[in-house]
Each structure stands twice: as structure tokens, then as C-alpha cells.
Known about the structure:
The complex is a heterodimer. Chain A has 17 helices and 13 strands. Chain A is an alpha/beta fold. Chain A has an eleven-stranded mixed sheet with strand order 1-3-2-6-8-7-12-13-11-9-10, sandwiched between helices. Chain A is globular. Chain A starts with 6 loop residues before the first helix and ends in a 14-residue tail after the last helix. Chain B is mainly α. Chain B is built from three helices and two strands; from the N terminus they run αααββ. In chain B, strands 1-2 form a two-stranded antiparallel sheet. In chain B, a hairpin with a 2-residue loop joins β1 (84-85) and β2. The longest helix of chain B is centred in the first third of the chain and has 22 residues, at 20-41.
Amino acid sequence: MYRGKSITQLREELDSEKVTPEDLFSKANQLAHYFQDDYNSFVTIIDKCKYRKSDSKLNGIPYALKDNFSTTGILTTASSNILKDYVPVYDATVYKKLKDAGAILVGKTVLDELAMGGTGTTGHTGVVKNPWDKECMIGGSSAGSAASVALGIVPFSIGSDTGDSVRKPASHGGLVGFKPTYGRISRYGLFAFASSLDHVAMFARNVKDVAIVTDILKGKDPNDMVTLNDDDKCYADLLDKDIKGKKLFYIKEMCGKDAYKDIDDKDLSEVISTFHEMLDKLRKKGFIIEEVSVDKTLLEAIYPTYMVISCAEATSNNSNLTGIQFGPRGEGNSIEEIMFDARTKGFSELIKRRFILGSYILQKENQEKLFLNAGRIRHIIVDKMNELFKEYDGMIAPCSGGPAQKFESTSEKLSDRYLILENHLAIGNFGGFPSITVPYAMIDDMPVGLNITGRVREDDLVLNIAYKIEEETGLKDIYSKVGDIDV
Amino acid sequence: MIAKEKLKEYANKLMFDMNEEEYKTLQEEFEIILKHMDLIGNVPNISDVSPMTFPFSNEDVSLREDEVGDYLTVSEVLENTKHQLNDQVKVPKVVE
Lengths: 487, 96
């Protein structure tokens, strides 16, 4: 049986020659096809097993890659019509490292168009469904990467995370989602969305597996000048669950016991109560966990700050999508008309709305009030976190105000739940902090995750804290056992 | 409410357009967006803070040596367009 096994389990089977890489690929490929119509994880399913033998821990392990990473000779669409036929001629560093490590690509996964969105509903090939309940979203933007791991098709997948695009769907999919420190992993060949916030991140079903993947991917890359020098640590080997004396904080206004006492929301109250039950368990295991207070106006400003910075950066990053050198050519009698037509036809309505917002923010009359003030608030939030990190080793919080939402549901976008609890993960992108989601409870048979965010460059500590927490949740290595297939 | 003409102007500056119905939907959505944006103004005493454009001070950043690395061939560059002439991307005449 292959389905649902972790990297560590598959490694043992490969090393003892119970299975071959070709067997694993064949099973992953069968599963990918079997679930495609119902869940739509993939833009492209690879049918030919291509792998380069190595002595790494990922040798022979199947994986999925978000369709905004450049892969030579393999269609790469960013789930947008404007790139629907684009076949890259160079490899993203992440893809190259995984190939060199002997990992086997099973497919390119669906995302919210151009990675701008959090629902998994806006890709040009259709909606991605949640493996735990088909009526629900898995969240996004790395929707297909999350679904492919939550279905047990692959033991790990790669995504990108600009606001919470891996850590939120990880929560909705019962997965571990890890975004290392900004610059820890090269973004060369990742289609840029908002460069000052973009991170490479990954999904797996346990903490050790994301550590193994990070060990392969991290390091300095001359093609991405913001990458960090390698810290020469092997994160997977450093996991020891020794957290004695480690101090965590949670923010009273975000997830205190009484933070939402006036709101009648069953999911929200269950999230808060299960979260505090988990904190009590963790205290018994040796963590010191304390409540801190942060100015609520600052927390409420996280979401608009994120929108302003990301939409503004996105407008310039996507200005290369013209239909001239690549992408469907527009019609017209001049270069301008051709570009105008290509962009009008190539972008969906939702993307256009975000671009118009970016354009509005960057108008001369709005720059000071919106763009520069958003940068100032980002600075204040990051300074506040760094001040707290002088005393504490990490922040702990629920990833959202409830399990995955139904497709037809609409959030009350100005509520405290929406503004604070649904959007706080962007703090990790503002400051480039390492940040990890771990499933911690089931609410009405749907998983919910908690998040640990720690000091920059201390990825090993964040992973170790999560490794200890995972032991207490009883939700390690879970996946949805939906479907009638036995491989 | 923000004028539809303004939204069209912002879209056109980024070289695309939407249809009337889409502008109408966006006009309504902008009401909520602007309320969100107002929350930025609620944070007190921010004028002396410098806007952050990068997550943290990164001493590891350095310019690489100016050495010839991997580069794409002309045929690779042209692989994703059908519109080619003399090893270049063909576009309508620019200079009359």
C-alpha cells in the first residue's frame, strides 16, 4: 500500500528494496488520475516516470509542484488563461534541486490564478475541492498542492506563500505547511506575485517530512540575490522534541478566551475552545505559554496592509504578461492594442479587480495615504513581533476562525473574525519569519490547524517546537481516506 | 461611491479593460475595500515610521561577480511565440 505514506515510511521501503521508485510513481500516477475529476488537484499530470538517482532522502519519492514554478518542457500556466500554452525553457531552482535529489514529479498543481487568492476557486481549469468534504474549499492559493497531499496522492508538495497561501490550506487540509525564513529557499523560477512577501513553502503530513524537504531546498542561489547563506544545519537531524523552557505567546485580541465572546459563531467558539485545550496540554508537556496584548487597531490593519502591498507589487510584477513574447497573442494594429487585447482576454475578472486596486493604490494622490502608510504599518507590526521574540521563542495561534468553508458561504468581511483571525498569517510574510501550520483538532470531522511563527533564521527551532506539538495532537500523518481505490 | 470612469481609467493604465457589468460589480466591491483601507488610517502616530519594503536586514545580500552564466539560445527564447521573423519576435510596424 502506497497511498498516504510519509516520506520517512517510503524511504524505508525503498531502502529495503520492497518497492522501486517506478512502483511509487506508478501508484501516485494512478491516484492522481483517479481523483482528478472529483477534486481537480492538477493542471498537468505527468505520465512518464523521470528520475535521476541520487543518495538523498528524497531519492525515488513522488511529489507535486505548484504550477507557478518554471519547469523546462512542461506546461506551466500559473492557472491563468494568459499562460495557458506557456512551456518554460528553464528550470526553477526548486525544481532543479528536487530533480537532482531524485524526487519524481507527479504533476503540476492548480492554484488561484497567478497565486492571487485564497479560495482555490479561480484557476483557469476549475475549482479545487477539499478532500475532507467536497462541498468545501481547500483554500489557496496553493490549492492543488494541498489537495494532492491531503488525498494521499503524494507525500509532499511544493507551494508558494505570499500571505498564507500554504499555511492556510494546510489548516483546511489537515496538513503540515511550512514557510521557512524569507530567503531560505531560492525563488528563481517562481512566478513573482509580491516580491517583498513571496516565499517558497511546502506541504507534507508530518513535521519531519517538511524538515527533510527544506534540507534539500535551502541554500544560497546566485540567481536569487536575496537568498540567505546556508546555515549548514540539517533540520531533520536536529529534531529532538527538547522544548524544555521554551516560551510561546498568544495574542489576547486575536485568540484569547474572550476575544469573540460577543460573536455568535459556532465554528469560531469551537476553534477558540479547542485551541485553549491544546495550550493546556502543551503546558503540561513543558512549554511556557503566556498571553500578551497587542493594539487591536494594529491587528485589524493586517489585512488591508497586506492587500495594499501585495496588489501594488503585483501590478508591476505581472506587467510582463503581454502576449508578445509568450502567451496568446492579442488582436490589434499596434503593439499597444495587441497587449491591451491579450491582457483583457487573458486575465479573469477577479485578477483584474486586484490589479485595479493596485493601480488605485499607486495613483499619486493615494501613495502617501495607502502605499507608504501600509509600509509603515508593516514596519510597526514587524517591530512589535521582534520585540516579543526577545522574550518568547514563538507565537502560537489558530490558523483561521473555523474549518474550511463551504463554496457558497460568504464571510462577513468587516467582522473581527475575518479581519484578525482569518488574516494574521500574513505577519509571517511581513517579517519573513519562519512559520508552520500543524493540524491540532477535528471540528465536525474537518481538520483545523494551529500555527507557530518564530524568529528569522531560526527555522530549526520553529520546526522543533512543531515536532513536539505534533506529538500531542494525535493527528500526525492524517489524510482523507475518501475514494474506492487500493494502491 | 467611486466613479466607474475612474475604475476604467485605472484598468486602462494597466492595459486591460472590463465590461460594464464587471465595472458595476467592482464599484460595489470597492465600497468594502475602501472601508478596509480606512483601517490603515486608524493606527496612530505612524508618520515618523519609515515604510518597510523588505522583511529584515539581510547581510547575506551581495552582488554576484559579472561572469557569463547560463543563458537562453535565440531558438529557446522564441519557442513560446508563433510570430517570428529573422530570429526575432514579430510585431506590427512601430515606425511609420
